[in-house]
Amino acid sequence: MTARPAGGPPGSSAVETSPGAPAADAPAAPVPREEDRPAGGANPAAAVPAVAVHGVDKVFPVAGGGATVALAGIELTVAPGEFVSLIGPSGCGKSTLLRLVGDLVEPTRGEVLVFGEPARAARAARRYGIAFQQAGLLEWRTVAGNVELPLQVHGVSRKERRARARELLDLVGLGDFAGHWPAQLSGGMQQRVAIARALAEHPPLLLLDEPFGALDEMTRERMQSELARIRWETGTTVILVTHSIPEAVFLSDRVAVMSPRPGRITDIIDVDLPGRLGAARVGDGVPAGPAAPGETGGPTAVDADDVREQAAFFAAVTAVREALRAGGGA
Ligand SMILES: Nc1ncnc2c1ncn2[C@@H]1O[C@H](COP(=O)(O)OP(=O)(O)OP(=O)(O)O)[C@@H](O)[C@H]1O
Questions:
Q1: How much is the ipTM here?
Q2: What is the DSSP string of 191-251?
Q3: 20 to 30 Å CA-CA from 177: which of 56, 92, 108, 298?
Q4: Whose CA is nearest to atom 30 of ligand 1?
Q5: How close is the Cα of 98 to the center of ligand 1, in Å?
Q6: What class has domain 48-127+203-281+300-329?
C-alpha cells in the first residue's frame, strides 16, 4: 500500500435469512484471491483508460445569485477492471464527481472521457450502470421485472430479458426471489436487485453512490464481500462513493481522497491486501473477469474477516485516515 500524488496514472438490522442469502452467522462470503484470477493475455483495451477526468471544475449556480464551487481541478484516471473509491467529508463533491462520470451533470470546465469517449457518448452507448443509496426499485414490478426494466426499455426480447434476469439474480444470490415483490425483500436484498439491474446491459463501468449506506453493519460487510465477488466475476470497472474508510479499503485497488469543498483529489492511496484480488494485474493490463469459456471453478475462498483483520488492511485504513486529515477532511 503506497500513497501516490493525486492525478497520477493508475498502476498506471436486517439480517437476511433467504435461501439466496446466507444468515448472519454463516461463514463470510469468499473473497477472490489474486492468484485465483483467471489467466488472460495482454489486454489492448487497457491502453485506453476506463475513465479519464482532466482539469474538471464544477460550479453550481445558487438561486438568488452566487455560486457553489463543488469541484476544482479534478484529475483522475481509472484503468479498465480497476476498483476505485472516492472518499471525503460530506459535501466535498464525491457524488458530483460520480455524476459527472455518468453524464448526469456536465462539467463547468475540463473533460470527462469514458473508455476514450466523451461521457455523453458513453452514456448513449450504455457503457455504465449506476446504483444509489436508495435501491429505487419499482414496487409494482417483481424483482425480475425490475432487473429486466433497462432491457425492456431498450427493446430486448422477452425471452432474452428473462434469461438475463435469471443469470443476474443468480449472480447476486437472489435466484429464488425472481417472482417476489420489492416490499418482500430486506434492504440488503433490495440493494442486490439494484446492482443486478445496473449490470443488466453488461456495462463495463459500474458507478455506485453509497450503495450500502443505509444497511446495518453486518449486512453491509456481507454486501461488500458480494460486491468483491461480482466485480471479480464480471471484470467490471467500479467507481464507488463511500463514507466508510474500511469499506473503501476492503473493496478498492485505489482510494481517492478528497478535500472539503471545493473538492479536490488530495491523495490517492494504493491498496494491496494479500489474499485479495489486487491492483497489480490491472496495472499489467489484464482485466479482472470471468473464467474463459470452458474454464470451471471460481475463486478459492479467503475468509473476508481474515482480509479485514490483516495488518495490511489496518495500515491502509490508517493511510486513508491520515490522507483525509492532511487534506483537511477529518
Ligand atoms: N444540483 C445541485 N445544485 C446546486 N448545488 C449542488 C447540486 N448538487 C450538489 N450541489 C452542491 O455541491 C456540493 C457537493 O455536493 P455532493 O453531493 O457532490 O457532495 P458529497 O461529497 O457527495 O456529499 P455527501 O457526502 O454529504 O453525500 C454541495 O455543496 C452541494 O450542495
A1: 0.98
A2: HHHHHHHHTTT--SEEEEESTTTTS-HHHHHHHHHHHHHHHHHH--EEEEE-S-HHHHHHH
A3: 298
A4: 91
A5: 11
A6: alpha beta
pLDDT in the model for residue 148: 96
What's the N-to-C CA distance of the chain in angstroms? 20
Kindly report the protein residue whose alpha carbon is nearest to atom 3 of ligand 1.
60
Q: Ligand 1 — pocket residues by CB below 6 A?
A: 60, 68, 70, 88, 90-96, 261
Ligand 1 atom closest to 209 (CA): 22
Q: What's the whole-model pTM score?
A: 0.81
For the chain, the structural domain boundaries read 48-127+203-281+300-329, 139-202
Task: Give residue-wise pLDDT tens across range 264-310.
Answer: 999 999 998 877 754 333 333 334 444 333 333 334 335 677 888 88
- Residue 53: its H or E element: strand 51-61
Cell numbers for 270, please give them.
494504493
Beta strands at 237-241 and 83-87: parallel, antiparallel or unpaired: parallel
Q: 256 pLDDT band (50/70/90 cuts)?
A: very high
For atom 31 of ligand 1, the residue with the nearest CA is 91
CA of 96 to the centre of ligand 1 (A): 6
